[in-house]
Amino acid sequence: MEIEEYARIAAAEDDHWWYRNTRAVMADLLDPWLRSDLGGGRVLDAGCGPGGNGAWLAAHGAVVGADLSLDALEFVRARRPETAPVRSTLERLPFADASFDVVAAITVLYCVDDDRAATRELARVVRPGGAVLLMEPAFSWLTRAHDKTVHSRRRYTRPGLVERARMAGLTVTRATYVYAFLVPPAALLAGAERLRPHATAEAGSDVERGGLDPVFARLGRSERAWLRRRDLPFGSTVAVVATRPG
Q1: Which CATH number among 3.40.50.2300, 3.40.50.150, 3.40.140.100, 3.40.718.10 corresponds to the domain 3-243?
Q2: Which of 76, 146, 194, 243 has its CA 20 to 30 A from that of 35?
């Protein structure tokens, strides 16, 4: 990811509607494990970036933030004292087996070189009965300039991300799309960028605020109410919750 994008994320992730809503979705999906009061438990924020999710997860246990980027880890050290930063690739994590009660990898696998190896590592370091939460951008036809800015390599479908988790030896307990309301505008923007490739090169970040942010925040709250009862058949993000057997 470009260092400028880390700076944008660091400036926005505490109060931008998308980051706040995503953490609320994480809370709902991980509720059975978070309600168990981890207390002295350990949480891995895999591919932590500037550390916003880890700061939130710290309310539920001791958080380790793993990321390969020195730029990202500098933001963690400077702004997120509740997170212990560790430099590492996801494909080879420097932790013993069963080290964590909860592992969260949020928009990370789509950027790594070997997502199969990374998912196996996430499965290895979570304890038996612990939770692994994967949330990744969905559908290759929604690829935009922002994907290039963050050095993405792929996008996922629900069956594809479920397959990654199962091939890693995890048992999938929930798989759903998220952000259904973002699919129409995202598809329009992606189509426009394909028609104007030169403009795409000048585009980049999706983090900047826009006039529709309050509307998106309300739609996010409504969608979360739906997700508490049932899955969504489509969305711009796919989420998988899985556990390690044993």
Answers
A1: 3.40.50.150
A2: 76
Domain ranges across the chain = 3-243
What is d(CA 179, CA 53) in angstroms, rounded to the nearest whole number?
Answer: 18
Nearest CA-CA partner of 205 in 131, 157, 149: 149
Say which residue the tokens 């080879």 belong to: 92
Helix (H) or strand (E) holding 191: helix 183-195
pTM listed for this prediction: 0.92
Reduce the DSSP state of residue 114 to 3 states and report it.
Answer: coil
Q: Distance between CA 67 and CA 99 in Å, rounded?
A: 17
Q: Tokens representing 129?
A: 């009965």
Strands of the sheet with 126-137, listed across from one edge: 83-87, 62-67, 42-46, 100-106, 126-137, 237-243, 171-178
Reading the chain (246 residues) residue by residue, the pLDDT tens digits are: 667 778 888 888 988 999 999 999 999 999 988 876 555 689 999 999 999 999 899 988 899 999 999 999 999 999 999 999 999 999 999 999 999 999 999 999 999 999 999 999 999 999 999 999 999 999 999 888 767 766 777 999 999 999 999 999 999 999 999 999 999 999 998 888 888 765 544 445 565 656 788 999 999 999 999 999 999 999 999 999 999 998
Any idea which residue has 């049932």 for tokens?
Answer: 230
